[in-house]
Amino acid sequence: MASSQLPAWLQTSYNELMAQAQRQQLAHALLLQLSDGLGAHDLLKAIERGLMCRQVDAPCGHCKDCRLLQASSHPDCYWIAADGNQIKVDQIRELISALATTSQQGGSRLVVIEQAHRLNNAAANALLKTLEEPNENCFIILCSDTPGLLPATIISRCQRINVSGIDEAPIKHWLEQQGVDWQQHGWAYRIVGGPYALLDANTGERLQGLASARLAWRNALANGIVDANLAKYTAEHPQDSLQVLDWLLSKKLASLKTQQPLLSLKLGDFISQLWHTHQKLSQMPTINYVALCNRLVLEYKQLTKGN
Ligand SMILES: [Zn+2]
């Protein structure tokens, strides 16, 4: 059954929602704060299967609802995604008029709005009334990794779907189940945007680049010399490169903590400065990356001098 393939951090949320649905206590408007890199799409698909199948052991996998879902052609499921950068008012109007008719298969209806923060103002306003007075047996799930960008009027009408337990241990376990070599690639899951994103990147060159950068930054921190390949990589992939450095420094900080409080403090400051630099990169189009790498390594050498 597909839901059993969900990773641990999604399974708990899924089980809670299905239990609420069985008790007929599931809210009609729901908000899921989760990125696709952490598995939002998989969770939404599992919820769809669980909600639409009307068998006791839902999702049974062989009833008409299940078969329609397997063929991606269930007429009572509506997935809305941004048209370009925005979810436009016409998309929402079209949805509302579809919901005004009765359910085609006679069961529940499900609306999923992915990247809901992309609803433009007119679309968000058009959706409000539907969220407030939902049709019977119709569930609307808004999904966003940045729900803070949604209007407060939308958020206040939705019940949140909580996802917890997104810790390294279950992520490691799940990635290994998916065939990822944790020692070699697992460390980079945060940098690429989450464990699901790591699977996407697994076949690409990005992970190789990150692994080379990790080695090059480690050498640079140890001997104080930035090699040409590292400077080149940083110029080409500044975000990835600085995140690798941040990962190395955070790991070092975690290993120090109690033994060297002064060094821990300095290193903590250095990491937060690095984070600010990282945030400002997009506003600095003419940055000299060779100079930046050298400055970072020099500052690191100075703060760790004598330790
Ligand atoms: Zn079924």
Automatic annotation (TrEMBL):
It catalyses: DNA(n) + a 2'-deoxyribonucleoside 5'-triphosphate = DNA(n+1) + diphosphate. Its EC number is 2.7.7.7. Signal peptide: none annotated. SUPFAM superfamilies: P-loop containing nucleoside triphosphate hydrolases. InterPro entries: DNA_pol_HolB, DNA_Rep/Repair_Clamp_Loader, P-loop_NTPase. One of its GO terms (biological process) is DNA-templated DNA replication. It is an enzyme of class 2 (transferase). Keywords: DNA-directed DNA polymerase, Nucleotidyltransferase, Transferase. GO terms for cellular component: DNA polymerase III complex. It holds the Pfam family DNA_pol3_delta2. Coiled coil: none annotated. GO terms for molecular function: 3'-5' exonuclease activity; DNA-directed DNA polymerase activity. This is DNA-directed DNA polymerase. It comes from Paraferrimonas haliotis.
